[in-house]
Design goal:
Elements (H helix, E strand, L loop, with lengths): L1 E4 L7 H13 L4 E3 L6 E5 L3 H11 L8 E3 L3 H5 L7 H10 L4 E6 L6 H4 L4 E5 L4 H10 L3 E2 L14 H8 L5 E4 L10 E4 L6 E4 L5 H8 L3 E2 L27 E4 L3 H13 L4 E5 L1 H6 L4 E4 L4 H16 L5 E5 L7 H11 L2 E3 L1
Parallel strand pairs: 1-8, 2-8, 4-6, 5-9, 10-11, 12-15, 12-16, 13-14, 13-15
Antiparallel strand pairs: 2-3, 3-7, 4-7, 5-6, 9-10
The structure holds threonylcarbamoyladenylate and magnesium ion.
Threonylcarbamoyladenylate (TXA) binds next to strand 5, strand 6 and strand 10.
Length: 339
């Protein structure tokens, strides 16, 4: 795997991006930073190239990929029709962390959409991603650049740890910003439906288009099947079991104490205020506000694997704003939820 350093201080940043774009055009896989998480890209019109993504990640074939483009015009070239509200959302939030699921016109390779008649398209807001897409001049399919089942990568080192030797290239642009994946929005109906909460919140969407629904399949009741194939998998799992704990820091401390008494080594992750109020074997401070919690969450999940804990406890957060995406990922990672 060829690794280029493409941060702003690098003289040869443009050449690095150009070389990465050449690899993409030649049908190879390249990991690159976006404003959400690192993506593992390949030419979306090249079936053999797309197959390499599924192989490198060990990704189930029935899980469709998001296609990344540089301009709204390129998005329009991949779909049969666009509702008016999508034009408003494009104007308000792109380039940025939102994916539009629209009726596909079949231009992408069939393994990109996993046989669905819709395609997810997004215009990423990261300068390196945008430059790469412009240079490659093809739509680039890119799932998160992690091994399937691991937390999504928010740094080039995360990508390297998972995929070194399995992909052709990695553009290292430092850590990503948002830290959680894009909001996936089903735009094939009269009213948009959130299939995966993410970087753009429900509240933000509603300000622009009024009513927005949430896929009932996202609720944890296991009755309904999520409409987004990727949401049915248990994800993001650290090696040790993770329990979500709702309530005060005193209550969290009681759970910690009970587990430590059993001889378990207990790791805790929580917002700054809670972290300073509790005692445990190993603590990770996720930050003082929800934006920081979102940005540090995946790195924290990976960090526990290196600290040999028997159990991870995480405080439950309010499902407001970006908290909705944070809790969605935590619930998928958790094996228990103590209320
Ligand atoms: O922020 C992101 O979206 C990152 C960066 C790299 O862009 N990408 C990402 O891709 O998270 P991935 O493959 O890890 O997640 C894509 C999600 C999956 O849950 C998939 O099932 C869903 O989007 N998806 C893709 N196309 C879809 C479609 N046509 N209909 C419904 N869901 C779709
Ligand atoms: Mg993923």
């Amino acid at each position: 795997t060829k690794r280029w350093y493409a941060n702003d201080f690098q003289q040869d940043k443009q050449e690095a991006i150009q070389s990465a774009a050449e690899l993409l055009k030649a049908g190879e896989t390249v990991a690159f930073p976006t404003e959400t998480v690192y993506g593992l890209g390949a030419d979306a019109t090249n079936k053999a190239a797309i197959n390499k993504i599924f192989q490198a990640k060990g990704r189930p074939q029935d899980n469709p990929l998001i296609v990344h483009v540089a301009t709204p015009q390129q998005l329009k070239e991949l779909v049969t029709s666009i509702p008016n509200y999508v034009d408003k959302l494009l104007e308000a939030f792109t380039p940025g962390p939102i994916t539009f699921v629209l009726p596909s016109n079949g231009r992408c390779a069939e393994n990109v959409t996993a046989g669905l008649d819709s395609v997810g398209v997004r215009l990423p807001g990261h300068p390196i991603a945008l430059k790469l897409l412009q240079e490659a001049a093809v739509p680039v399919a890119a799932p998160s650049a992690n091994l399937s089942g691991k937390p999504s990568p928010t740094s080039a080192d995360h990508v390297w740890a998972d995929l070194n030797g399995r992909i052709a290239g990695l553009l290292d642009g430092g850590t990503t910003g948002v830290g959680l994946e894009s909001t996936v929005l089903d735009c094939t109906q009269a009213i948009p439906i959130i299939l995966r909460p993410g970087g753009i919140t429900k509240e933000q969407l509603e300000e622009v288009v009024g009513t927005v629904m949430i896929d009932p399949g996202l609720a944890n009741d296991k009755e309904q099947r999520p409409k987004s194939p990727g949401m049915k998998y248990r994800h993001y799992s650290p090696d040790a079991p993770l329990w979500l704990v709702e309530g005060s820091s005193e209550k969290l401390q009681q759970v910690i104490d009970a587990e430590m008494k059993k001889g378990h080594r207990v790791g805790v992750m929580a917002a700054s205020k809670t972290v300073t109020a509790i005692e445990a074997d190993f603590k990770i401070d996720l930050g003082a506000n929800m934006e920081t919690v979102a940005a540090t969450l995946y790195d924290a999940l990976r960090m526990f694997n290196e600290h040999d804990v028997d159990l991870i406890l995480c405080e439950a957060f309010s499902e407001q704003g970006i908290g909705q995406a944070v809790m969605n990922r935590l619930k998928k990672a958790a094996s228990d939820y103590i209320k």
